[in-house]
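Q: What structure does this chain adopt?
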Amino acid sequence: MKKGKNILSHLNNAGDPQMADVSEKIITTRTATAQATVQFPSAVFKQLQKNNFLSAKGSIFHTAIIAGTMAAKRTPELIPLCHPLALSQVTIDIEIGEGLLLINATIKCEAKTGVEMEALTAASIAALTLYDMCKALSHDIIITQTKLIAKKGGKSDFKR
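A:
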């Protein structure tokens, strides 16, 4: 398979999987922000608000932030072709919406490759942790809209 624009970088010429070669790239500051949404049944959300988002297991926000941070650092262990990166910063913010929590995970590093997968992994694991922390209240919790919001650094920038 020939390399070029719009070609999958994780395939070699024979079409087999490979880690992308970033040896010729220059080190730049890379940032990425991903977002995940966790929707709750109305009664459950009201109960969580009433209890300051504390469950029997503790603070659902603090636990999700720690889990998301740990997940960002372990992304190459979870996604086979990701490069291991020395992350400079992991920030996880959780916003309260109407019947939902919005997770924003922002990752920063100095590297030859981007941190989109780390941001998406952090947001996803934070969302799964919120589910785990609240599932005793209801299994009707829905994780939706996990998406890349923005990335900077490298060949191109992206903003949703």
